[in-house]
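PT: before anyone asks, these are the final sequences, not the draft ones from last week. 832 residues across everything. Please model them as a single complex and drop the result in this thread when it's through.
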Amino acid sequence: MIERKQVFEGVKIADFTWSIAGPMTTRELAEHGATVIRVESHKYLCPMRRAGQMMGGSTSINSSFVFANFNTNKLGISLDLSKPKGQEAARRLVKWADIVGESFGPGVIGKFGLDYESVKKIKPDIIYFSTSLQGQYGPHSRYQAWGWQAAALAGFYEAVGWPDRDPTGIPGAYTDQIAPYYMVCALIAALDHRRRTGEGMYLDQAQFEVGVTFAEPSLLDYGVNARIMKRRGNRDSYAAPHGSYRCQGDDNWCVIAVFTDAEWKAFCEVIGNPAWTEDPRFATLSARKVNEDELDRLVEEWTIQHTAPEVMHMMQENGVPAGAVQNNEDLFNDPQLRDRRSHERLNHPEIGAMLHQRPAYRLSRTPCRLVSSGPMLGEHNEYVYKEVLGYSDDEIADMLIEGVITTEADLPGAR
Amino acid sequence: MEVAPMEERVQMKPILDSYRVLDLTDEKGSFCGKILGDLGADVIKIEKPGGDPARNVGPFYHDIPDPENSLSWMYCNSSKRGITLDIEAAAGRGILKRMVRTADFLIESFPPGYMERIGLGYEAVSAINPGIVFTSVTPFGQSGPYKDYESSDIVLWAMGGIMATCGDRDRAPIRCSIPQAYYCAGLQAATGSMVAHYHRQLTDEGQYVDVSIQESVLLNVPNSVMTWYRFKRNTMRSEGMRIQMLYPCKDGRVVCSIGGTGVGWTQSTIALTNWMAEEGMAEELADIDWHNFNPGAATPEQVQRAEEVLGSFFLTKTKQELYQAAVERGFSLAPSSTPKDLVEDAQLAARGFFIEVEHPELSDTISYAGAPLQMSHHAWSIQGRAPLIGEHNEEVYERELDLSQEQIAILKRDGVI
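LR: through. Structure below.
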């Protein structure tokens, strides 16, 4: 095979982001060849370095696999942006970069003299992105919260749950996993635009708005039909049975979704055409919708006798949409994900062998390449300060002593 | 800082306006073309005669079921032109091949192998136009033991791992009542297509992009596989909800986090409890040292007591009162928004998030969710409403492909268009 250059080889990114949305954005470009320098500080640790239960009892700031996964292929340096010399180093980094990214609360980066207007003076064609909860302007721009609050704001808490109960909400920081990819699309369009015109660009992303783009059908239903969409558990207007059904074992479930008459016939055959399937109450989709509680009970009488993978395979072999509700263990063992190498095993100096998820798409000519796990804090200080930013050994030594380049000694509570 | 005044932004040129996309997808992939279309690409939605079956999915405009009234279809197909074409007929295939010559992207979501079978696989298409980015969106991808498995939103929500963490522990795992799998997949397809696009711009070389919806959903539980690999541990439904706790308030629900040991947590909780103290409702919490309060490490009694006190305070306020105070005083609380809250949201309005789109055939204007981010020199915005069935047949076949009236009449007679 011809060794092709990676798509973004030569594209340089100064990454001042932290937590999830920002680092996932730059990761996508790094996995396709961009050089990303992630700037961190021991004084204000990236929350992902403290993602507690993911560290297995270790207290080391380098032991979080969550951080490792979100920061593949990046170089990592430590730098105190609140110090004038730190800001000078950041200006050198910005001059080097094609793309600058930040995810502080709006207004914060300006205190370090690294806002778009300032950076543009140093590098007129810079592509600069900000990602924040509510965007850079507007009455709520200074609002501070976390990704799960953005998910609640965007309507995803009300949308997950049973009609007879309070909602259960969507787990995790849902909008943090959507935002990065929209930003990657925009950054690529911006790179292409700069290549053709020499013009840079500023990008302002609100993770709240990003969430709303995935919730839009419920907004349209309200705006057009004045209806507030209800939580429906697992129900679907066009299918029955449609739900997750308890299977053999402890807390094992399989999803079955029967939309068409052909699928209903096939479903009945798989479960052995018991007498109840002939009952007029279940003969048509609309009849099944009326008697859905009873239908679900009967379906579960059958599924409980089999394991979830058995139910899935039996249904699928007969053309009925079905899938096991996969927990962490099932996902790890999933033959489909394994066959497609959904995860790459990389060695991390402290964590050891660790899995990292690859992009959800495969490119035939320029596939992603995952070469290194997320950097340890300050791992590439020597290379970056010397080779990229041009500092002398003496200057670097001074910066270490002065705490401009932060070290373990700057960790909160270290002294 | 505002990227550019709103009035100027809507006048700006979209950034992908020199590219063309052939969109052959159904509901599994239509969001990809919408993203590229909102960015300005000329997206031609190619439906089979009679229209995309996804047009029959509700909710509908004014609750009137009709292929031209599906609200989710209208949303996922904005900024596109629309033609009908039977690509299984030889004549239809020929027309598509002609269209491939001037296209930069082709997106499809047929079952694996279908496009090859009808002579329109990547090899055939790239032989006509080597620069084309050819993107396939399928439930499980083009390879692997499950590649031919049937699917739907709920199947992919389950197989992608997020469902196992959704719902109450005493009941079955659940999906989101606003189906999400195809949004996740459309966004991944757009991302992969854009990476391939950039490579094409540099080298003139196109490529094939294979998107798995299952893997797209899996990105939403980014720690799942690793948690098993490292700790042999599963994640239970609603686990972690302690820190993202939902509380009832006067007129709905809010999500609030207390305690914690990271950046911002302590500050936030102190700002909240100070407010409660001003209103004389924090007495029972006076003995808690929030600087060192960690809900993960505190006893269940301590946490429960803190939550009860917070809970009774929230019950005295409305969502809006609590949200407004959160913005002004700097604590981490969000209303659990309903669609109504979103349509009325002050921040979304101030940023011009919603876009009014004219629907002359309905004699109406519909307000749509706008861009996922704002660009300083370009509009990222809906370029026009979704097409009616075959709306641009004449424009495309007659004016752009130079077919004669006679040829078109024959194609119509044969059911090709």
